[in-house]
Amino acid sequence: MKQITNLKLIILVSLFLVIFGNFAFFSNTMKVYPPDLGNLAFLLSLAVVYFCIYVFFLSLICFRVTIKPLLIIILISSSITAYFMDSYNVVINSNMIDNVVRTDPAESLDLISLKAIVYLVLLGIVPSLLVYKIRLTRQRPKQAIIYRMSVMGVALCITILCIYLLGSFYAPFFREHKQLRYYANPAYYIYSIIKYVGKSTKEASRELKVIGLDAKILEDDSRRELIIFVVGETARADRFSLNGYSRKTNPLLEQETLFNFSNTWSCGTTTAVSVPCMFSIYGQDNYNSTEVNTIENMLDVLQYAGVNVIWLDNNSDSKGVALRVPFENYKSPDKNPICDIECRDEGMLSNLQAYIDEHTEEDILIILHQMGNHGPSYFKRYPKEFERFTPTCQTNQLEECSREEIDNAYDNAILYTDYFLSKTIALLKQNSEQFAAAMIYVSDHGESLGENNLYLHGLPNMIAPDDQIHIPLIMWFGKGFDAEIDLPGLSKKTNNRYSHDNLFHTTIGLFELETTIYDPDMDIIDHH
Prior knowledge:
- There is one protein chain.
- By secondary structure, the protein is of the alpha/beta class.
- Helix content is 44%, strand content 11%.
- The chain is built from 19 helices and 12 strands.
- It has an 8-stranded mixed beta sheet, sandwiched between helices. Strands 1-12 form a two-stranded antiparallel ribbon. A two-stranded antiparallel ribbon has the order 8-9.
- A hairpin with a 5-residue loop joins strand 8 (448-449) and strand 9.
- Helix 1 crosses helix 3 and helix 1 runs parallel beside helix 4.
- The longest helix has 28 residues, at 403-430.
- It is elongated.
- The protein starts with 5 loop residues before the first helix and ends in a 14-residue tail after the last strand.
């Protein structure tokens, strides 16, 4: 094979990445800047600018020893990134990387498809093999430095010239259309990895901050509380018939006397953000993953007050929330007695009565973390008998299914959640003589199902559609709470706007804890 210089290889790889790895970037950009005569020069300049940026960046980090390993890693990573962005219109930011790191490997299998393999082979493996086999010429150090500086200088000058000549386009592009840059491949995911590593390093160096040591149960609280807190997965508020959806996706819950808060919004668009956030004292406006992960949460405060806390998980994990409380994994048939193609949420209820019987003299909080509507394989998220809406999408490649098939599979999974929650309420009713029993159900985030060619979730909050952040929040109370809660007053608040921010203080309020960190203004419930 003919020998080429390091910089020629960098130029070729940069050109390949711009042409074949950035379909999502250019397709989204052309929605804002349609490719007409007025915008054509700007769109062409964008391709040139990104090419020059990649040449400049790769020239900084790629030398004779590092060039092949780094280029191969970038090509493989960029091919996977291109698949997800092209197929689902998602972006790979630091929150998404955190979500990937914390995702169970078994769940990741749902994302593997023939199309993903094609992307990996054609955009990742094949060019990586070519990079590996290419023979690089040796240059004298002085000559190599001069050549490298010249190429970097030319790339920088061309970039500056394009931005200067087309400043009227670039000014609003940088200022008003920041979301378009999220699709730049590999620039944005490399930036996000650096940001994620920096955050993780900072977290590791910080000591855990203790809160709520003064928490105690009020002396006049003579009745024990039993609260089951259900953390839903990927459920949209507008797919609950309780919220007016035309399909009866909540036939069992509609028969219960409960409080449905129809105007509730998530802290984030990924499980890795929303689950820690909903148990944190920090609200969304003050949310910082480093702060959240290095400070105790609601579960710690409840334990300080003497509440018996346990986390049961049929999802990937607690995202760090349950590190200091008892934790049981229900993803395996060894623990979960209700499994078919996968273990069902219902299995988390199987041993709860025995657990409750062992702690009748204590307040109890049980967290149930659902598999819920985890995508893209919605058809796997419910037993066959819940396939009421047909035909369904029977693949994880959502782009191969019609909107009707996707909707049907997704709605069937909501129907199974309705059944699961009704069984949870039935369990609480069994214990309403001994406890003041209650259920809180809230989803971590929503989901895009093809609207505006968006799928799944994970877009930054500032550009996320309502489908990804408008979530269901439901509460049910047993008769033991009649004397503790102004139920008629609460029913008047079900259309008020709430969010994950309210859950920390609402849950502490339900257990009637006395602590300086409790904010009654953030408590959804009016207490007598």
